[in-house]
Amino acid sequence: MEILRERSTTDQVWQAAEEFVLLFHRENPQAGDPRRRLADVRAELADTGTYRHTAQELAHGARVAWRNSNRCIGRLYWNSLRVRDRRDLTDADAIAAECFQHLREATNDGRVRPTITVFAPDAPDRPGPVIWSEQLIRYAGYGDHPSITVGDARNAPLTGALLALGWSGAGTPFDLLPLVVQGVDDKPRWFDTPADAVMEVPIEHPEDPGWADWGLRWHAVPAISNMCLEIGGIHYPAAPFNGWYMGTEIGARNLADTDRYNLLPAVGRRLGLDTSSDRSLWKDRALVELNRAVLHSFDRAGVTIADHHSESRRFLAHMAREERKGREVGADWSWIVPPISGAATPVFHRTYDDRPSSTTYVHHVGAVHRAQGRDLV
Ligand code: ARG
């Protein structure tokens, strides 16, 4: 669901700011009494219509925003998020360069590190920079219908817009799209993704050597780049962040969904399954082998990846730990339960409260349209 990007009044900003500063001081007792800071924030707000987070507030806010991400199963490590403070950057060139550097540092030769880079916030007199691409790494999709698309059908609209602007790709199923960035007071521009910023994993099957020649691959790092980081009433529209993958995201969704790579029929044939009847459960068997292949390949390449059984247990450990600290954990069941073998994981067998929080990552209106390259040309 998208949330309207309304300009908040100074009053609303103050309310959110007060709540955040109190939380920051509660969770960081070494920061001392919040009253001084609150007075400073109030004065700065009255003076300028906004206020500037300290580096510590920004880092804690970005981590709490992860902690509050109700759709994320991987929140156990929220407090170890690496925060790259690049709030001084507003130009597309500089932002793109830092996004690519983010990828290099987050990839870390395969030992993936959860990382966020925060660029300039919205200001009262002008919106901040924004990244049009939904992730820092995306594969092109060529074609206007999923059944005929080469590559990732999800990215076909953006690919079409980029082609119209003069970009060209090799036409393989795994061409890297350029990154589309709009700086402050500028139009969107695209930047070729340097090969050394992107690690990819060739997909192989643990028993069937034939898969290696198939040419399937996926990138090591999922880095969401079109969600707005909101902390204490301040909006950071360009704040790309990454964790590491859970195997099912790739094996049960990206490569399997009919409106993505739609590979289940090809996997089923490769496995020699009877694909003529749903009741042979060929799709289910194909899903399991595809997911085994993804986990096996990442392990073999030395790239961090979680499996859905361990990650489900970690999530419940996270909930227990948070509750011990007196904090309630919001969660969205339909996102937390893995897309295969749901009931075989413990996260299935309970309910959650999907409460919203004010410090969080949000899709604002326009984010999805931009990710599709609408109005880019
Ligand atoms: N599901 C998305 C993808 O497959 C990535 C979402 C974030 N995932 C993560 N493990 N941090 O690319």
How far apart the termini lie comes to 26 Å
Largest sheet composition: 4 strands, mixed
Shape: globular
Assign the CATH architecture of one domain. Answer: Alpha-Beta Complex
Q: What is the N-to-C order of secondary-structure elements (H for helix, E for strand)?
A: HHHEHEEEEHEEEEEEEEEHHHEHHEH
Percent strand = 5-15%
The helicity comes to: 25-40%
pLDDT averaged residue by residue = 96
CATH topology label of one domain = Nitric Oxide Synthase, Chain A, domain 1
- Contiguous low-pLDDT stretches (5 residues minimum) are none
What is the CATH class of one domain? Alpha Beta
Quaternary? single chain
Question: What does this 3D model show about the protein?
Answer:
- It is built from eleven helices and 16 strands.
- By secondary structure, the chain is of the alpha+beta class.
- The protein has a domain at 4-134 and 224-242 and 311-371: Nitric Oxide Synthase, Chain A, domain 1, CATH 3.90.340.10.
- The strands form six sheets. Strands 1-2-13-10 form a four-stranded mixed sheet, sandwiched between helices. The protein has a three-stranded antiparallel sheet with strand order 3-6-7, covered by helices on one side.
- The mean pLDDT is 96.
- The protein binds arginine (ARG).
- Residues 74, 222, 224, 243, 245-246, 249, 254 line the site of arginine.
From the structure above, extract its key features:
binds arginine; 377 residues; globular; alpha+beta; 11 helices; 3-stranded antiparallel sheet; Nitric Oxide Synthase, Chain A, domain 1; 4-stranded mixed sheet
